[in-house]
Amino acid sequence: MKEQNLYLQAFKGSFTSTLRWHHLDALWTVLKADADGHWYIYAIGEPPPTAVADAEMVVKFVDSIDKLLRDEHDEKYCGIVYADDLSRPSFIKIYDPNNLGVSCGYSDNPPLPGWILSKIPPVDLPAVVLPKNRQRWWQKLWVKP
């Protein structure tokens, strides 16, 4: 129960956006340097992971999600990745470019992020069913070559 409360408290905490693409690049550099820092990688709509990802998986996820974001968020700005601290993150929310709703504005029902990286074990967040293309992308990511 304590870990659940910590996770939900962190989830609802204060976040800073990677407004520009170079801010996202800087965040990825920091994250890759801390790839073995006990990160949980959670795709909302899938069961929360019960174990941290290894460093290789963190780097693979970062490279894959970066490509997905750049391919599908065809904007001059990023603005859909948020971290609790851009220089020393421990909780990162990544919004799906195909399900943005009002992620950066006020809403009684803001969309959930598509993916979360955290150093706190995640808890199941209520979500709509993942679209099949996102399920396939996520499952393919975890297949060892």
Layout of secondary structure:
Layout: H1 2-11, E1 16-17, H2 21-33, E2 40-43, H3 55-72, E3 81-83, E4 91-94, E5 115-118, H4 132-141
Antiparallel strand pairs: 1-3, 2-5, 3-4, 4-5
Provide a descriptive summary of the structure in words:
The chain is of the alpha+beta class and 145 residues long. The chain is 35% helix and 12% strand. It has helices at 2-11, 21-33, 55-72, 132-141, and strands at residues 16-17, 40-43, 81-83, 91-94, 115-118. It has a 5-stranded antiparallel sheet with strand order 1-3-4-5-2, with helices on one face. Strand 3 (81-83) and strand 4 form a beta hairpin. The termini are far apart.
Q: Mean of the pLDDT scores? A: 86
Query: By helix and strand content, what is the structural category?
Result: alpha+beta
Cross-sheet strand order for the largest sheet:
1-3-4-5-2
Note the gap between the termini.
Answer: 37 Å
Number of strands: 5
* Shape designation: globular
Residue runs with pLDDT of under 50 for 5 or more positions: none
- State the helix count: 4
Total separate domains:
1
Using only CA atoms, what is the Rg?
A: 14 Å
**Percent range of helical residues:** 25-40%
In this structure, how is the largest beta sheet organized? Answer: 5 strands, antiparallel
> How much strand content do the residues show?
5-15%
H/E series, N to C?
Answer: HEHEHEEEH
Key descriptive features of the protein:
145 residues; alpha+beta; five-stranded antiparallel β-sheet; 4 helices
